[in-house]
Amino acid sequence: MSRQAQRLVCLAGVSWSFDRASKHLREFCGWTVSDSKIRSVCHDQAGQMIAWQRVDRVACDAFRTAAGDAEFTTDGTMVNTTEGWREIRLGLFSKRPAGEPATPAEWATRTLPEITARVAFAAIEASGKFGSRWHRWAERLGIRDTTKLSIVADGARWIWEESGLHFAGATEVLDVFHALEHVSSTAAKIYGEATDETRVWADTVRNALISKGWEGVQPMLETTRQSLNTRSSHAELSKLEQYLGRQPEHLCYAERLEQGRTIGSGEVEGACRHMIGRRLKNGGRWKVRRANRMAGLCANVYCDLWDAYWKSA
Question: Whole-model pTM above 0.70?
């Protein structure tokens, strides 16, 4: 199979399940390529792509020269494997120029500049092993001063622990949508679903959180606690207080808005859905090694490194 043919077969294999890719190649190109052959070519090229991405400077050149400030986000999604459902973790470095300064009231309506470069990697492996990759990737991408790096995440402890180990001095931000989801959930459990009291309380806490961080929210939670008269309501409020209170330094939303920087990790969540989930949740059960290879194949397509790989490798 020629290199160009392998390129098209891999693109089909990363876009659809192998059996559907076989049917589409017949429709698009008039080729008869079995699903097992597509699987074989994809796994072979995926292994080579992952190695290329780790050692070839071409894979990092676009990121190094791109305009903007470096950001890192990470998340995970569950994949069905022969060892049961396993979490495949995704790391995503990106660059984005700073936008116009915004006020807390404009947090949901402002428009940020487009991302200028991204590099992603993924694997089913323990958090410590996955985290150990981060610093090596940062060095390859030219991120020498980690105090200028932003980490935006959903608040999982393992992320902050690995960030502390590998990105000393980086700015860590709790994804604002996860924070507000906890606020809305707490309001509904205390005051009921879709009530005026629920809406008013959630809106008030949200405004305080985005404008003043933990210092703005803590007094409100204390005042709310004094007005509650059931054990379950106290318990729900305590959960929110613990979630936000254990990471006050990650709630710097007003400062980030003033700097024109992101306060959400939607990019990595979208990547989990559209890069990993769309393909790896559409192919039965995977062997872990093969799932990792296919994730590497997906990462190259998502990060716009596809053309660079086929031209340089």
Answer: yes
